Amino acid sequence: MKVQGKPTRTIWLDADGASVGIIDQTQLPHELVTKRLATLEDAAHAISAMLVRGAPLIGATAAYGVALALGRNASDAALDAACRTLMATRPTAVNLRWAIEEMRRELQPLPPGERAATAYRRAAVIADEDVETNRAIGAQGLPLIAAAWEEKQRSGPVEVLTHCNAGWLATVDWGTALAPIYAAQEEGIPLHVWVDETRPRNQGASLTAWELGQQGVKHTVIVDNAGGHLMQHGRVDLCITGSDRTTAAGDVANKIGTYLKALAAHDNGVKFYVALPSSTIDWSIEDGVRDIPIEERDPSEVGEIAGRLPDGKIARVRLLPEGSAALNYAFDVTPARLVTGLITERGVCAASRAGLLSLFPEQASRMAGE
């Protein structure tokens, strides 16, 4: 995707061939700042402090984190320690575990002298594959937007509501939920995106709005509780969100507030789609409400907010009265019954075990053996 008209990715190998560059997403939308990751600790901090975020990008960053660690020490003990350190950074996004397991599977059998170079190559492949997967998600989701446009008899823009940021900033490029939107833009379909602010970290207002603006997609930021009102008045044609973990039965964990949007969509007959790469599917669990671990973050994210002052300086201000407690769950789970369909790189399917297995039949034998 583009930043100031220039094609850009969220993560890259620096010119020195050893360190890794990222966009520091905590500084957006007011400043575009890049950071250099030189150590395992740098990568772990980038993930846990949300300099990088979004399930696919977390996975790619973790892969490079393993490479950074082995560039300094490629022993068995160092590989184990790197995997443990990175696994502990964010508990909900399953891509983190997937990427670490991919790296361990390839690196463990190798002699230590071959591990570092292989780790960098494998991390680069994971990043490149993410780009192509997300491009495919866009192609698979495009017909849904095209159908909505036809249903409107091409009389106006397709109104899409999204939640949080599942655009290219959440991946290496293209995004998941926004990939069909970008694909539709390329096809000349008129679009307008309703962008939930996504409290408390405001990823919609700060990230989704920023990248849509960079890409020239018309959009409007709304408060989190406005989506239901818009649906009641026929101003939303379809919803598309992302997923940080999807169960084998089609339940989806996404940024807190997604469940409420799905309830509103269900009540108003609005189609509710979830876009996700196959690496986000956790085939080991069925019941998302019961079994998906939900990250609880620092209450200060609820009690404080950052913004630009009239003099141009960036500052954090307190919102809550002194002494008021705050609770900060980062995700919630939307049951499969509320999801119209899952948009994956292989196609669109029902949010169910049967639906997912129709696209990923190779998982059937593995699941049968468990």
Mean pLDDT, all residues: 95
Low-confidence stretches: none
- Please provide the count of β strands: 18
Which strand-content bin applies to the residues? Answer: 15-25%
Biggest sheet character: 7 strands, mixed
Number of helices: 13
Distance between the termini: 40 Å
Strand line-up of the largest beta sheet: 8-7-6-9-12-17-18
Structural class category: alpha/beta
Q: Rough shape?
A: globular
Question: Over the alpha carbons, how many angstroms does the gyration radius reach?
Answer: 20 Å
The residue fraction in helices comes out at 40-55%
Q: How would you describe this protein?
A:
By secondary structure, the chain is an alpha/beta fold. The protein has 13 helices and 18 strands. The protein has helices at residues 40-48, 55-70, 76-87, 94-107, 112-151, 179-186, 203-215, 227-232, 258-268, 288-291, 300-303, 353-359, 362-368; strands spanning 2-3, 6-7, 11-13, 20-23, 34-37, 158-162, 191-196, 219-222, 238-241, 245-247, 252-255, 271-275, 281-282, 304-308, 314-318, 331-334, 341-344, 347-349. Helix 2 (55-70) packs parallel to helix 4. The chain starts with a strand and ends with a helix.
